[in-house]
Every structure is written in structure tokens, then in C-alpha cells.
Amino acid sequence: MFAVLSQYTNSFKYTPLGQSRLQPHTFRFLNSKRRAVLATGVLLVLFVLASFYWATPGIRRRRQIAGSQDWSAASLPERVSDAVDWSHFAYVQYATNKPYLCNSIMLFEALHRLGSRADRLLLYPSKFAVSPDGTDPQSWESGLLRKARDEYNVKLKPIEVVARGSNDPNQATWAESYTKLLAFNQTQYARVLHLDSDATVLQTMDELFLLPPVPLAIPRAYWLNASDRVMSSQLLLIQPSDFEYARISKAIDAAGPNEYDMDIITNLYRDNALILPHRPYNMLTGEYRNVGSHKAYMGSEEEPFDPETALKEVKYIHFSDWPMPKVQVFSLLLRTMLLTCC
User: Fold this and answer.
1) Which of 113, 149, 260, 335 could join 174 via S-S bond, C-beta 3.0 to 4.6 A?
2) Is the dihedral of CA 282, 288, 292, 294 positive or negative?
3) At what angle do helices 24-55 and 57-68 cross, to 10 degrees?
4) pLDDT per residue over 29-74, tens digit each?
5) C-alpha distances in angstroms, 99 versus 11, 176, 326, 329?
């Protein structure tokens, strides 16, 4: 037995090729096997790289965005955009008075100009009557409503304004803000994106309609204490339903004297809403007057705030720079001052 083992071991000793017990065809076999292993390895690496490339289009897209600063909703592939029935979705606004009606028309003009695909719906006070044929009195309000309908393809829906009184004169701005919550009752749509009208749209946001199903998607109020997890109700991505609207209506009826739409939304959805990033979907104009830290908006102290880059990135800017008045209020004050001076 030991003799057999010794003979087998000696076979592994080096001998010149010509004297080796291994025949030339054996070396050819080994060489071909090495080539096969090498080729298999190369193919495996290529397969892994290709799989990674096709499985991570989001990474490639983010790199393109970072290089071009193109955050437009045209980032939706055409094949995706064309396959969507956009009539199931709508941008929604509400107007409770003349200044806010004017704001809404300007915002709808921006959505029209930017080529948004979803419907546009305006909830307006029923006292601002407008007839289909334009035979109603040529009031300022009816003229704006017809402009929205005829030029910007806005669907008009008269409503009764939902308002609550307040003992605090500083809260008068939000006394009629409950009206926006009627968006939860627009069940003719599968999903609506409500936008406050005291703002401006710089890029369309059609891609938000294609997010996973959830009753509400909303950004946080990044300018407030983060630990309070306050929701920012100026942008609401809603799946309208009778159930959710019943919850909202009950909360409105039970609201305290200084509890408004933002408080109701936060209390109901703080723990179960889908959180949208405030970059690029929700910036306050006050960010441009802030001479201190921009950590709350940027997300870290390390990333510097560049005004021009931020403006290219953002899609929706809300006019909020307390204690400065809203733009529409300031314009009315300025008009009054000019009339008084003249």
C-alpha cells in the first residue's frame, strides 16, 4: 500500500516536459479548461455589471439631474407618461376671495405653460357665478373664471366656503383655510394634488400622481421644530374618499378656536402619511431672506445654500416670510396707497 502511495506522490515531482508522464494532450486539456474558467469569469462580471446598470435607472437619473439641474417633470419617460390616463388625476386649488382667485389663475397659467398632463380643478365660492356661455354679468370674478376655463382648461366647481371665526386677529389669514380640505371629497378623481394659491409653480409635478397608493402624501414643515413633526398643508397629495372626508369633517367640527387646516392634517396624519421631500417640492420664500443657517432646508450644515442652484431645483415656492404680508395683500395695500396719494 505504501509503495502505491509513494509511486502516486512521485508522479507530482517536477520533470522536464519531454520526460513527464503527463502526455501533451493532457496539457492541451488543462489549458482549454483554464480558458473556459477565465471566459466564464469574464461573462459573469459583465452580467453583474449589466444587471446593476439596468436595475438602477434611478441612480443614473440622479446623476444626470445633479449634472444638469433639470428637475422638471419631463423626467417622466415619454412611454410612461403616454401610458397614463391623466384624467384620473387633477391639480386642485380653492379660492375664497378676489385676491386668492387671482392667485389661482396665475398658478393654473403656470401649470398650463409648463405642460402638466393632469386635469386642473378650481373650487370657487358659489357667489362668483359664471355661466357656460358667458352671459352672466361681466364682473371681475366671472371674467377670471372664464379665463381659467377657456384659456387654461380649468374645470370649475362652485362650493360653499368653510370658515370658522377666530379671536386672534393674527390668525385671520387662515380663518377660511378649512375650505382646502374639500379636496378630500373630490372623489371623481383617483388622486388630487392640492396647491395653496399664495405660491408659484416653477416646474410641473406630474410624477407625484404615480407614487404608491396612500391616503395622503405631504411634506413636513421643515422650518418648524423637527421633533414636533408638523405637516405642511400647503401641498397635499390626496386620494379622495368618503371615509377620509368624513374624518376631516369631524375634525373640523371639533376644532378649537385657533386650530386650522395645518393642525387638523398634522393631528390626523402625522403617523401614517407618506412624507414628501421638501426639496424640491416645498420651499418658503423666507429662505431667501434668512441670513442665518439653512440647515433646516438643506438637511445638513455641510451642504451650502446657493440661491441660484436652489431656485433651479425647487418646483413649488410658497410665499411665506412672516411677518412680511402675503404678496396679494401687499399688492392691495400698495394699490390703496397709490390711489390715496393720487
Assistant:
1) 260
2) positive
3) 60
4) 445 667 666 767 767 767 656 655 544 444 344 334 333 344 444 4
5) 98, 13, 10, 8
